[in-house]
Specification:
Order of helices and strands: EEEHEHHEHEHHEEEEHEHEHEHH
CATH architecture: Alpha-Beta Barrel
CATH topology: TIM Barrel
Helix content: 25-40%
Radius of gyration: 16 Å
Strand content: 25-35%
Shape: globular
Low-confidence stretches: none
CATH class: Alpha Beta
Number of strands: 13
Oligomer: single chain
């Protein structure tokens, strides 16, 4: 069964969700992130997706204390992204308890640095964040666009030990209208040795099941959980199907 990864997006230490990456469309769900993380662990989930939205805007991680508290409270495999633009910030994320780091903008602006991180830390710890807007990679917390397509970015590092890619279609993010199925299916077929994580637009359990049938290995679910479209019971039922 596809790995279900619940998302916690953080602003000022609180769990929020944006719509289509727009900081002006922010909804706060809870200030108790630790209890939220524990609820996911109790449900049987194994991985957690933490996004430091403050860090994405500031170009340096801003919620490491929250990361550290969550890492101490649960045994979940935590992947953390937002503002990782230097080896110093990357190491600070690992030192604060993350087991995987998501790096997006740096792969576009300084590809040799990202390539070196793959060599130093390994593909099991470094995740490429390949977020697209109108087919092109978006960077800096989705505030800037590049002229590089998703497939091109992945191909740049496919031979350098890259094993994990999180791809978010920004136009779908937070809309609950279903993910870009064709995009994820084509990417997973094109890069069979890389785990393509679908992110953005998940609105129902049926979306998760369809991605699983397509051969996707992991999916990030955020707003659908917080809006009650997908319940913890739904997730547990999916996990039981194996």
């Amino acid at each position: 069964m596809i790995t279900i990864i619940p998302a916690i997006d953080i602003i000022d230490g609180r769990c929020v969700r944006l719509t289509q990456g727009d900081f002006g469309q922010k909804k706060i769900y809870t200030e108790n992130i630790i209890d939220l993380a524990k609820s996911y662990e109790d449900a049987g989930l194994k991985r957690l997706h933490l996004v430091d939205l403050d860090g994405a805007k500031a170009s340096f991680p801003q919620n490491l204390k929250t990361l550290e508290m969550v890492a101490k409270a649960v045994a979940l495999d935590i992947q953390y992204g937002g503002g990782i633009k230097s080896e110093e910030s990357l190491r600070s994320v690992f030192n604060s308890g993350a087991t995987r780091a998501i790096c997006g903008s740096i792969a576009v602006t300084r590809p040799e640095m990202f390539r070196s991180w793959l060599g130093i830390f390994g593909g099991e710890k470094i995740i490429l964040g390949a977020d697209s807007k109108d087919g092109f990679i978006a960077t800096h917390g989705w505030l800037k666009s590049s002229d590089i397509r998703v497939e091109q970015l992945i191909e740049m590092f496919a031979g350098d030990g890259l094993t994990q890619v999180i791809c978010t279609d920004i136009s779908r993010d937070g809309m609950l209208l279903g993910p870009s199925f064709s995009l994820y299916e084509s990417l997973q077929k094109a890069f069979s040795n890389i785990e393509i994580t679908a992110s953005g637009g998940i609105g129902s359990v049926d979306d998760i099941i369809k991605l699983n049938e397509m051969g996707l290995r992991s999916v990030i679910v955020g707003k659908a959980i917080y809006e009650g479209k997908i319940t913890i019971k739904n997730i547990q039922e999916c996990l039981q199907k194996g």
